[in-house]
User: What shape does this take?
Amino acid sequence: MSDCPNANFLSYSQTSQIEILHRVYTHLIQMLEARKYTIDEEDVQDKKDLTSFKDLFEDENDPDISILQFLAEKEEKNEIQRIAIFWSDIEKIGVKQIKSYLDFMDENDVNHSILVLKNPITTFGKRAIEEFNINFPTKYIEYFEYSELLINITKHVLTPLHIPLSDTEKEELLKNYNLKKDAQLPKLHHTDAIAKYYGLRKGTVVKVIRSSGTETNYITYRVVV
Assistant: This one.
């Protein structure tokens, strides 16, 4: 499911560019926190309220979004995982830009990054990122258009709770249900809005909890494909 507003919102809404950018930034931070990343307080303390956020930019009508780039980290499998957040207002993302992100990732010991795009990504841009992720298996780039971060989809009343399972929990689930492989579970496509929000990779199993309106919740499991 996807409850994201149409990208035309950016063109036709009366909301100012700086207000849109602040909304996108706020929901990005919420998304990273949902993924258990720790963000340096210095990176967010002057960006929490709209007034302080506006003061960061010389031109509110054409803000330099590159100043919003930052790093976050979390502990996973007894290792510190770092993620870089890149912002781009380039009309067409291509190999040149992706190469610059790779250079930054190499220089800063980062294997994972999120690219936040002001403009809709082109088919060529999608292909360039897909090829990067294939050609550099130890690196990974995700991308989100502004329109995908205008709201926090996990807070939508119709969105059920999604909880990614650890490898151990996944194995226990398959054993308990006498399943030989995770492909026997219902599917969740990796391009689904919820899968993108949590950064779920193919093969990840999520526990989905839907409220039934009574004391009993409806629980299912889905595998990301």
Summary: Confidence is low (pLDDT under 50) at residues 1-9. The CA atoms of residues 47 and 53 lie 5 Å apart. Residues 9-149 form a domain with the Dna-directed Rna Polymerases I, Ii, And Iii 27 Kd Polypeptide; Chain: A; domain 1 fold (CATH 3.40.1340.10). The chain has two domains: 9-149, 160-224.
